[in-house]
Amino acid sequence: MPDEGVRLQKVLAAAGVGSRRASEALIAAGRVEVDGQVVRTLGTRVDPATAVIKVDGSRITTAESGQVYLALNKPTGVVSTMDDPEGRPDLSGYVRGRRERLFHVGRLDADTEGLILLTNDGELAHRLAHPSYEVLKTYVAEVPGPVAPALGRELRAGIELEDGPVRVDSFRVVGRAGTRVMVEVVLHEGRKHIVRRLLEAVGHPVKRLVRTHIGPVAMGELRPGNTRTLTKAEVAALYHDVGL
């Protein structure tokens, strides 16, 4: 461990883990790791800008790391890129003025609205987007009804599309209004237009599509065009989901 730096219990307290005394108790109990090693020595100094610190296996973030984690409710008509060569409205308009170079996690087509994550944590962004980590995404779609009771079972078993089979992790009807039905689709697929193509293939073309969750992060009451900073618990849960 470095001789210079900040005392570990102070870093934990500043990150919101608990009071300094509670943080000392966590260290003494062997519940804190720094760069993969369990630390039990009080007064251990770390560099909060670079150290990978975990409490009970969950990674914590520090202000000194300079990492930014934002949730954006992307409106319709906005393309999922930070710089559109065609001059269409893009994601850069929602982070203008920030000095960090942010990556977007999760593409949505221009006609789809909902949750996109923005971060300068390149490794997290890469893992969240990589299919091998199978991060779940949740969508709510408006489709024409009625929806057969057996449709969920059919979608969970798998549907053959032109570029290969796809199956959902879960499917349920969440609302009805006249001939319109709202359905929730959860899957870890990331292929282009996958939800629209999937529902079209089973006779329910999508009229409106909203992504509500990426892994453990929920869009909640965030209004279209607005952003919010992820909580420390949400960031820790994302780290956990991708093995960081």
UniProtKB/TrEMBL annotation:
It catalyses: a uridine in RNA = a pseudouridine in RNA. Residues 6-66 form the RNA-binding S4 domain. Coiled coil: none annotated. The keyword RNA-binding applies. It is an enzyme of class 5 (isomerase). Keywords: Isomerase, RNA-binding. GO terms for molecular function: RNA binding; rRNA pseudouridine synthase activity. One of its GO terms (biological process) is enzyme-directed rRNA pseudouridine synthesis. The keyword Lyase does not apply. SMART domains: S4. It comes from the Bacteria. Its EC number is 5.4.99.-. Gene3D superfamilies: Alpha-L RNA-binding motif, Pseudouridine synthase I, catalytic domain, N-terminal subdomain, RNA-binding S4 domain. PANTHER family: PSEUDOURIDINE SYNTHASE FAMILY PROTEIN-RELATED, RNA-BINDING S4 DOMAIN-CONTAINING PROTEIN. NCBIfam families: pseudouridine synthase. Belongs to the pseudouridine synthase RsuA family. This is Pseudouridine synthase. It comes from Jiangella anatolica.
